[in-house]
Write a structure and sequence with these properties.
single chain, five-stranded mixed sheet, alpha+beta, flat
Length: 180
């Protein structure tokens, strides 16, 4: 699905120098990428494109909030995101690069769509664990999480055995013997 916000820069007719572009990425942009983790938000991007004869240097600065789902209670969560990234675009018909911050475009290219990079920069800036601050999770959902199963429902294999400090689980000892 294509994002509804046009993030394409036509650099073909531009002279060498710096150019500034501003974007506001909203829900219509993020829904184009079909990722449940990053489904809505409002992120301001300032893009500075520095054009020279053989390459483009593109600096991204962004700040905003993303709406996601709390990992603990599944409620809606607003996550602040911000960051700075630099992308180098070189012109060549043959070269490729393993560096994700260097992109090669054909010599006759005249435009570049920055949407994928913008999306990835926001996605990478999100925390690994997305949870509400203490006390803000949905109390109804927390009831389900904290309920303990009845002892009758618990199989003997499900029991968690806590060993005193310094002792090793005998199952690990058996495995260590195999390595000797």
């Amino acid at each position: 699905m294509k994002a509804k916000i046009d993030t394409t820069i036509q650099f073909g007719g531009l002279k060498s120098g710096k150019y500034v572009y501003n974007y506001v990425l909203d829900g219509s942009f993020f829904e184009g990428f079909e990722n449940e983790e990053l489904r809505d938000g409002n992120v301001d991007f300032a893009v500075i494109l520095e054009k020279s004869e053989r390459h483009l240097l593109i600096n991204f600065t962004f700040k905003g909030k993303i709406k996601s789902q709390c990992d603990r209670c599944l409620g809606e969560l607003s996550i602040p995101v911000e960051g700075e990234q630099t992308l180098c675009v070189k012109f060549s018909d043959t070269e490729t690069s393993e560096d994700e911050d260097v992109v090669f475009l054909p010599e006759d290219a005249y435009q570049i769509d920055l949407g994928q990079w913008m999306y990835e920069y926001v996605a990478v800036s999100m925390p690994m664990q997305k949870i509400h601050p203490e006390g803000e999770c949905d109390p109804e959902m927390l009831k389900f999480i904290s309920e303990e199963r009845d002892d009758e429902e618990m199989d003997s294999d499900d029991e968690v055995k806590v060993l005193p400090d310094g002792e090793t689980d005998p199952r690990w000892e058996a495995l260590k013997k195999l390595l000797d």
